[in-house]
Amino acid sequence: MTTLAARRLLLVHAHPDDESIGTGATMAYYAASGAQVTLVTCTLGEEGEIHVPALAGLAAAEADQLGGYRIAELAAACAALGVTDHRFLGGAGRYRDSGMMGLPTNDQPRAFWQADLDTAAGYLVEVMREVRPQVLVTYDPNGFYGHPDHIQAHRVAMRAAELATAEGFGPDKIYWTAMPKSVLEAGMTAFAESADNPFAGIEQPEDLPFGSPDDQIVARIDGTDQHAAKEAAMRAHATQIPDNSWLYSIAGNFGSEFMGVEYYTLAVGTKGPGAGPYGWEDDLFAGLTPDPAADPAESVAVVGAPSTVPVTPAEAGVR
Questions:
Q1: Strand pairing class (219-222; 85-88)
Q2: How do residues 36-76 score in pLDDT, each as one tens digit?
Q3: Topology of domain 8-298, CATH
Q4: Binding residues
Q5: Can you tell me the distance from the alpha carbon of 9 to that of 39, in angstroms, rounded to the nearest whole number?
Q6: Residues of the binding site for Zn(2+)
């Protein structure tokens, strides 16, 4: 890349479809605004369930071709989101989907869960060296909900950020995907009497493997104008998300609010100005100065001043 955009966002996800479900509105929002959005996916998702009966033969226990098929699904999803820069970590097929925690697939030699941390981080550093992201988005230390590949994606992203920072081009801010407990509580209440209740058997948000107190959330990205793009991206992952998925059921009830709003905690960097009772940012680039190396026509104004002490990757728990 010879000319850098003024705003550059890098997202690191474990499998195809994770980007659309967790950060699709954010990606579409920033792509539409002219920011450089780069997606790195760590595996092909070979161990995923298949919800298209005609494609059942692609399964890992059959032809083991699901990963190749999901490359095309991911390409279609990125097109729906307006994202033109997508890479697989180390190249397509370098690392294999590890499957759910505790399964024998965790132990396969190519399983991402078995990847050498510095080797995998080195592949990501090369992407960072090229695109120079100011903002990095990935999962929290538990991989949001405990999947081994999500946990490993967190480790790799944080280690790569540490290495890139040592070389002088690490991201200024690192966010982890999150869900406020207040949003989970609202969903549980809304679906309590529904026959299609995705929270069935859950009595309180604390019973879920994810959910953050509202005062720990730092950013709320309102991409409601992009909710249709996010839904189209999710539908592109047809093998993984069936037409009758509870995700679409919730979307039918809450519409653009569900599809278009995404939340984050801040792991590294300085919190920018925000609003509301918790001062949530409405921009992942809040508080950052325009990049003098970028195209001046694409530069963004700085809004307000930083309000917290910066955190380093090491302080955020990088081993």
A1: unpaired
A2: 999 999 999 999 999 999 999 999 999 999 999 999 999 99
A3: Rossmann fold (3.40.50)
A4: 15, 18, 150
A5: 9
A6: 15, 18, 150
